[in-house]
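Forgive a beginner's question, but would it be possible to get any protein sequence you like and the tokens describing how it folds?
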Amino acid sequence: MEQIRTLVRLRKALLDERTSWYQRLQARLFHHGLPRLGALTAQDHREWLDRLEVPFPSHQVVSVALSSIERINEEMAPIDAPLKRIAQRQPGARALDRRIFGVGWLTAVAIWAELGDVRRFGSSRRAVRHTGLDITVHSSDGKRAPGHRSRQGPEVLRWALFEAALSAWGEGSPHHRYFQEVKARQDVHRAFLSQARRIARAAYHIPLEMGEEAPAPVPGLTLPPTITEAA
């Protein structure tokens, strides 16, 4: 499971880098009053860049951004292949993907790998505490400070849970009413955090019910050394 965590964390690092380049690209286009660049193929990007009429420095920013995004996409491919097989074949990861609304193949593998064998927690409260999404309250001289996230535990796990929460609040979601109620009582950010904690609790109970099957090795999965050592 440690090797899988390495892959997941590498994938997240590449995703963050790609997002940064997208943001830089869109900011430069906005600076020149140009529309956002949609999801195009690499060839479409090159043809669009050849027709782009902006000052040379901006043209270079856009060119480097596009090249970096294409490079990152290529680097992601050999990482995504085994992670998708894990999502399909590993019982615990597959159960998270199929049974928790908002969880997709990547976030399922991330949550499964970062939580590990949930039996070691003893309760869903301890599992949530491990994610760093629990609320801590500090008191001093009889005064209690407002609660805030502890931010302890794996950063990638918090990211995966929050991404799942962002996908689980819409009108078609079984959690939509709960989300709206928390939002009305507090605010939208607290509503997403609350939903992420609910997903964390579900990600504890589902594998717990599965027993030995949930943390079992992935059937038939072989990771090339050049991939597992890349991080």
